[in-house]
Amino acid sequence: MINSNEQFHRFPAPAKLNLFLHIIGQRSDGYHQLQTIFQFLDHSDTIEIRVIEGVDIELLTPVAGVLNEDNLIIKAAKLLQNHIRENPKSETHLRVENAQLGAQIKISKILPMGGGLGGGSSNAATILLALNALWHANLSSDELAQLGLSLGADVPIFIHGFAAFAEGVGEELTPVSPSQNWFLVSKPDVSISTASIFTNPHLTRDTEKVNFNDDISSLDIDLCHNDCQTLVIKEYPEVAKLLAWLVEYAPSRMTGTGACIFSRFETEQEACHIQSLLPKGIMSFVAKGVNTSPLRKVIDNLITMQKSN
């Protein structure tokens, strides 16, 4: 049942960049140990949510090529719903009793799938943070990040919402403040499965651990690299060709497991100029790097509004 008084609330699900990505080992469970710096972009999918009575989770805008039951949006909502029902806090007890833990969800998706921008993980994190507030669950960021980790190693960074140096499988986070440059993000007409890269036997898994003597700010990102890029440009000539073109104009590197490549500029105008020169058939956008996720302000404003009502 829909509560006619309940409105849709809008939330961003931003992209991330891996400014570098070193794979330093592999655990016995198959997960890779890595070192990376995450930074957000002011370029986001948009998710709208309306709370409904009952426990139904409805995705009103299915994503092409993805079954609803496989969509991280649905998985995240049901994960949080089950956690609340199994571990109700006093503040949520009445809401659980009244079964007001349903939601209708819409997504306007602009982040490419298979691009290495963390779109699916960002969607999941936005759902967890938004429904935590809308359902008055009052879980902490650490609790949500722990839940989110079961959905994907990148989910915690989107939950916490600050640029970070990450270790472990990507969940051990130390805040950092890299330069907030302008980026041209380009993607050839190819999508790359994260799993296909991380299971490839030719992936480098023994990069030497970065030693920055406890001063992360001293780390020169330009002297680092992306271990996945070395493999991807051998397996995907489209990525290799685009990267070779871009590095003629600006420092450029693949993010995550690709296929997106980010090129760094001092100004928006410079980035837009090179974007206008891109070869035909290349998807692209220009965005600013930001060290605080745009989602954090929206969630904080929602919680403030709820407290004032």
Walk me through this protein's architecture.
By secondary structure, the protein is of the alpha+beta class. It has ten helices and ten strands. It has helices spanning 72-86, 90-97, 119-134, 141-149, 155-160, 194-198, 227-235, 237-246, 268-277, 294-308, and strands at 9-26, 32-52, 57-59, 102-108, 164-167, 172-175, 182-187, 252-254, 261-265, 283-290. Strands 1, 2, 3, 4, 5, 6, 7, 8, 9 and 10 form a ten-stranded mixed beta sheet that branches. α3 packs across α4. The longest helix is centred in the middle third of the chain and has 16 residues, at 119-134. The protein starts with 8 loop residues before the first strand and ends with a helix. The model has no long low-confidence stretch (mean pLDDT 93).
Layout of strands and helices, then pairs:
Blueprint: E1 9-26, E2 32-52, E3 57-59, H1 72-86, H2 90-97, E4 102-108, H3 119-134, H4 141-149, H5 155-160, E5 164-167, E6 172-175, E7 182-187, H6 194-198, H7 227-235, H8 237-246, E8 252-254, E9 261-265, H9 268-277, E10 283-290, H10 294-308
Parallel strand pairs: 3-4
Antiparallel strand pairs: 1-2, 2-4, 2-5, 2-10, 5-6, 7-9, 7-10, 8-9
Helix pairs in contact: 1-3, 3-4, 3-10, 7-8
